[in-house]
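Protocol step 4 of 6: structure prediction from sequence.
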Amino acid sequence: MLSEQRLREVLEKIEGQTAVHIGREGSKYLAVVVSPAFAGKQEHERQSEVWGLLIEHLTDAEQVQVSFVFTNTPEEKAQAEQAAAAGGA
């Protein structure tokens, strides 16, 4: 069974990551990884990078416990926080 700590250790291997946030959705994990290295990359490129790392370091049984990993640049994170503070506007 995948632990939050193990998932965090794997996601912290992402190039340039500045923050990793992990939460639960039922029995599955949701994560947010913030890295300036995501700048200029399309979402599918970011997801390929993240899932390549997860596939490399987690077993199949552990991988299915990860629901989704959001991939943001620091600027995107700041924009999301501002929108949330303004009530989603």
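Step 5 (inspection) to follow. DSSP finds four helices and three strands in the chain.
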